[in-house]
């Protein structure tokens, strides 16, 4: 990890500090930029300190804390520190490791000074030291303290402790003459994300060329080239165009009323995604085209722009630009690595093999319903990049619409929602079921008080619209004033006036009877499944339950709580690719990595009695998967009562033959007491992550009564939920 860098996904409890922490749809490698930057280090011994954004998933509060030492973390959070990161997946990408090894061996033919920026476990540094017969000098720069500590162990294990000079600083804090004796002759570094630039490649290279490297240094990699392709894909369209999708709903609720069509949208950014998972629903509208080229061996510019003329190869609507990159590791162009989707058959893509999650393709959404093109038509793509990101604008030859004009029309007001929430809000079926649930709840009740527990703008509109006499208080803990401003703008179109709707000004989720004007709450509603901060496990969304518990003193006796309960569901599954990517590490290109297993959250082949952590994944993005059992219930969380520890147990029959790699767990949110309206967040739904508990060894399973005695017919799964730490402990026993 380096300046602007973090190779980590949001761990469930802690977010690591890094200047740039990205987070996009399925990113497992990066963090989201926290709204507050970490405080500057005030002490002189800064190298021994690390900031963590400590996030309590149940209360939703977060704060920056200084961690002097990993060992000072509370017991329960020690393991997850790096366990939910994608370091493991990255180290298990044998193709990646191999191309770096080949290129380093080829480049380092004589002893010299090598600098490794963002060194991680030290793999590239060790490759460099070995290539020089341990006669050169290697400086490994790693700013993230827990990672640097892990690297020290790995180096020691491989007898490289003396050969490599490990510096626990960001590369832009290194000084020649202080930290390193001289400028380095060679840079080896892998600080690339799916978007290429997100981990700070450009500023890091700029600083390195200015201050840390000799003139004309050698670098591994040598160059990266980004490519794109125009696609039509309804599922991608649904992820960003709420206005267009809402137009098809017919429930009389207008999240985006006519004329305010740019009020709500997704952030304009690249969304990392395994595009092979949507291949069947995707129509390719162009051949792949080259966009940008970045040379590592010279100082890059902070900004760049280019235009590409593209010929449409089919009729359709351009909904998105899918992009990827190809890394050329050596100057001669014989060693490559590509993040292209599987449908691209370029030589650089051959031999890659296994699915991996640390690099995916990126998707850039075109605004609105897309751009219609006919076969043979020319399209102009304008691409530009900043220091940390790439963006596009697509026009037919002559620029037609400028999005900035739209933004101007909405008076600059914009509510940014996640693409998953946009897709759900635009889903007619989901809306109708919410409508039915809230209508039933408000039926026959007048002058009621309804509290929206979270940031749900849809439920606020619904409650205000459906009952002309009720009072609605929305807590909007994340949206705050922005939410209030939004409601004022859309109130008229949704048939209510703001004198019945208010946004709580309090910072806490907890209201007192004074805040509710002396009234008790009759209806408490929310969309708890959206507390799902990117990297959270499904049961960490039970923050709703905690909030409900805090509100207990103001709830009326016959209060309706929606959802009224959460059902923890699970299914045994075959997940060969995911399992492989979370496999324990032994030798990696000849270097012993067995000390990293536990810290990096390895699951597969973990020596007993250790167990891997539960990890959040979107199953539909995990390549091959197959359900081997029926979906079963483990435990129910009853929101009509205050939060408490819960325990449940289920006996499960396998319904198919196969190799079971683990259990996928999720919560079904039951809206009404009749159990008729349920929001499921299971693996057949795309907008949520599931929790995955991988087995240390895959187990052959079969239908009960099968002839093969080596197959298991059933299993028992137990789960214990501890609200104090939002953890779910899962046990299983095959029989
Ligand atoms: C990654 O895991 C697989 C297990 O499926 C293993 O065969 C492979 O060697 C691992 N790769 C590395 C680099 O350790
Ligand atoms: C892209 O980079 C620019 C400049 O660094 C920054 O202002 C902008 O917020 C970035 N956009 C995204 C989506 O991260
Ligand atoms: C919402 O209010 C509008 C205006 O009063 C009304 O036309 C519409 O039917 C309402 N929607 C629902 C779902 O009742
Ligand atoms: C409500 O307000 C009154 C008067 O300001 C105050 O005495 C009382 O303590 C408040 N009650 C709560 C629960 O905050
Ligand atoms: C890590 O995994 C490897 C491969 O399964 C194993 O040989 C090694 O003992 C493990 N190390 C630890 C510390 O668990």
Automatic annotation (TrEMBL):
Enzyme kind, highest EC tier: transferase
A Pfam match: PRMT_C
Keywords, in A-Z order: Methyltransferase, Repeat, S-adenosyl-L-methionine, Transferase
Record flagged with keyword Transferase: yes
Enzyme Commission number(s) from the entry: 2.1.1.-
GO molecular function, a single term: histone methyltransferase activity
InterPro entries the UniProt entry points to: Arg_MeTrfase, MeTrfase_PRMT7, PRMT_dom, SAM-dependent_MTases_sf
Biological processes per GO annotation: methylation
Residue stretches making up the Protein arginine N-methyltransferase domain: 280-386, 622-702
Job description of the protein: Arginine methyltransferase that can both catalyze the formation of omega-N monomethylarginine (MMA) and symmetrical dimethylarginine (sDMA).
UniProt similarity note: Belongs to the class I-like SAM-binding methyltransferase superfamily. Protein arginine N-methyltransferase family. PRMT7 subfamily.
Protein name: Protein arginine N-methyltransferase
């Amino acid at each position: 990890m380096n300046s602007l860098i973090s190779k980590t996904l949001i761990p469930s409890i802690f977010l690591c500090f890094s200047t740039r922490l990205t987070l996009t749809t399925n990113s497992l490698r990066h963090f989201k930029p926290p709204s507050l930057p970490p405080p500057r280090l005030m002490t002189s011994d800064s190298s021994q300190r690390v900031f963590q954004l400590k996030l309590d998933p149940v209360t939703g509060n977060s704060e920056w804390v200084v961690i002097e030492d990993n060992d000072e973390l509370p017991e329960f959070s020690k393991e997850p520190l790096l366990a939910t990161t994608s370091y493991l997946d990255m180290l298990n990408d044998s193709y990646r490791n191999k191309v770096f090894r080949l290129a380093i061996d080829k480049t380092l033919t004589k002893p010299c000074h090598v600098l490794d920026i963002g060194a991680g476990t030290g793999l590239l540094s060790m490759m460099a030291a070995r290539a020089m017969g341990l006669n050169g000098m290697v400086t490994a720069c790693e700013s993230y303290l827990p990672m640097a500590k892990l690297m020290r162990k790995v180096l020691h294990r491989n007898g490289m402790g003396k050969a490599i000079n490990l510096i626990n600083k960001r590369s832009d804090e290194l000084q020649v003459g202080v930290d390193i004796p001289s400028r380095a002759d060679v840079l080896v570094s892998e600080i690339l994300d799916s978007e290429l630039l997100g981990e700070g490649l450009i500023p890091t290279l700029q600083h390195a060329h200015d201050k840390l490297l000799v003139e004309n240094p050698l670098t591994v990699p040598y160059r990266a080239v980004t490519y794109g392709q125009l696609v039509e894909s309804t599922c991608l369209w649904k992820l960003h165009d709420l206005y267009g999708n809402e137009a098809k709903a017919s429930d009389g609720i207008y999240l985006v009323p006519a004329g305010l069509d740019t009020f709500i949208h997704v952030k304009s950014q690249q969304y990392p995604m395994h595009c092979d998972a949507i291949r069947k629903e995707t129509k390719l509208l162009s051949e792949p085209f080259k966009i940008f080229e970045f040379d590592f061996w010279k100082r890059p510019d902070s900004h760049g722009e280019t235009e590409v003329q593209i010929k449409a190869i089919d009729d359709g609507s351009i909904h998105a630009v899918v992009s990827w990159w190809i890394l050329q590791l050596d100057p001669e162009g014989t060693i490559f690595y590509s993040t292209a989707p599987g449908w691209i058959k370029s030589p650089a893509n051959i031999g890659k093999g296994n699915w991996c999650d640390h690099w995916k393709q990126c998707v850039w959404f075109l605004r609105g319903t897309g751009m219609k093109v006919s076969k043979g038509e020319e399209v102009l793509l304008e691409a530009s990049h900043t220091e940390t990101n790439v963006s596009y604008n697509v026009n037919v030859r002559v620029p037609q619409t400028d999005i900035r004009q739209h933004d101007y029309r909405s008076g600059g007001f914009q509510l940014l929602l996640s693409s998953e929430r946009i897709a759900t809000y635009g889903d007619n079926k989901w809306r109708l079921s919410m409508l039915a649930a809230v209508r039933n709840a408000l039926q026959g009740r007048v002058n009621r008080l309804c509290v929206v527990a979270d940031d749900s703008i849809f439920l606020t509109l619904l409650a205000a619209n459906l009952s002309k006499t009720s009072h609605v208080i929305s807590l909007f803990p994340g949206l705050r004033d922005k939410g209030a401003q939004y409601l004022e703008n859309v109130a008229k179109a949704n048939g209510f006036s703001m004198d019945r709707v208010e946004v709580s000004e309090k910072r806490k989720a907890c209201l007192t009877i004074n805040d509710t004007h002396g009234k008790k709450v009759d209806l408490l509603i929310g969309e708890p499944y959206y507390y799902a901060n990117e990297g959270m496990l499904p049961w960490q969304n039970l923050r709703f339950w905690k909030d409900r518990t805090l509100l207990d003193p103001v709830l009326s006796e016959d209060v309706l709580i929606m959802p009224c309960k959460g059902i923890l569901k699970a299914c045994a599954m075959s997940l060969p690719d995911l399992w492989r990517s979370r496999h324990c590490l032994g030798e990696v290109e000849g270097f012993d990595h067995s000390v990293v297993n536990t810290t990096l959250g390895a699951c597969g082949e973990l020596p007993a009695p250790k167990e891997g952590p539960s990890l959040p994944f979107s199953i539909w993005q995990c390549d091959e998967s197959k359900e081997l059992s029926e979906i079963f219930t483990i435990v129910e969380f009853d929101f009509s009562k205050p939060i408490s520890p819960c325990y449940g147990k289920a006996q499960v029959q396998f319904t198919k033959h196969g190799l079971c790699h683990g259990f996928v767990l999720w919560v079904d949110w039951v809206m009404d007491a009749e159990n008729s309206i349920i929001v499921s967040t299971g693996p057949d739904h795309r907008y949520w992550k599931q929790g995955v508990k991988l087995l240390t060894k895959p187990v052959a399973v079969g239908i009960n009564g099968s002839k093969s005695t080596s197959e298991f017919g059933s299993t028992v799964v137990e789960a214990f939920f501890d609200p104090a730490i939002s953890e779910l402990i899962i046990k299983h026993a095959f029989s």
